[in-house]
Amino acid sequence: MDWRQQMILSFTNIRQYLRQSLNKNRKRQETKGLIKDKIIGICVTIIVFSFFVFHPHYAYSDSNCKISPDNKKRIVWECKNELHKSSIYTRECRIYAVGFGGKKEWIHKGSDLPEPTVKWHNNSLAKVIIPCGSPCSYSIFYDVIKGTSAPYEFVLAVNADKHIIARAGKTYILINSIYDVSREIMKIKRKFSETAALVLVIEEAHFTKKGNLFIRYLSGRNFEPREETIPIKFIYHK
């Protein structure tokens, strides 16, 4: 056998070896794929079984959250997922704040609230808005340092720097400190148009950069639109 025949034989042996190796790798990958599919199938079966056996009517989901602007805190609301019926008034939510450490700070622990809307006003202060029927809503505030506030109805505007809010009372606008419910800072009385609730004639309200309150509202029997900016004076009312 000359050197040409030896070289051809060598190339033939190498080609056969590579083909055998590729076949082995292919079979190995197919076996891994089958094992993976079986594991996934078993996990899905266990999850579905657990859902229907241990949670026959509902299950909690913690996938709903609002993260603070600095990404250090988040407000989480867990709601019951009804199998046949669900709305914002039947979700039965519970709400808490949580940081990177995972420790929960409860905002409302009982699972009896409608689904909330959450807004972070800055890195520290968040507002949790709870619907209670049109036009009703109330807000619970959470501050990273001060914790959870009392609930407030009909909140119109928030000054996050000074921790004060404007809210609609029966016939006038109230200025309150978020974490001092015992005293009202200021009452704003105007000739508001008469409706079932004052909040219905307040078209816009917000605190300016200087800390004053801008309001646009409907006035008198003819529901005449008016707007003004009102300086906030810390005159406490009992």
Overview of the structural elements:
This protein is of the alpha+beta class and 238 residues long. The chain contains 1 helix and 16 strands. The protein has one helix spanning 3-54; strands at 60-67, 73-80, 93-99, 104-113, 117-120, 125-131, 137-143, 147-148, 152-153, 155-159, 164-168, 173-177, 180-188, 202-207, 213-219, 224-230.
Residue runs with pLDDT of under 50 for 5 or more positions: 2-11, 39-58
The succession of helices and strands, N to C, reads HEEEEEEEEEEEEEEEE
User: For the residues shown, what is the average pLDDT?
Assistant: 77
C-alpha Rg, in Å? 32 Å
Strand content: 35-45%
- What summary fits the major beta sheet? 5 strands, antiparallel
Structural class, judged by helices and strands? alpha+beta
Compact description:
This protein has one helix at 3-54, and strands at 60-67, 73-80, 93-99, 104-113, 117-120, 125-131, 137-143, 147-148, 152-153, 155-159, 164-168, 173-177, 180-188, 202-207, 213-219, 224-230.
Output the keywords:
238 residues, alpha+beta, five-stranded antiparallel beta sheet, four-stranded antiparallel beta sheet
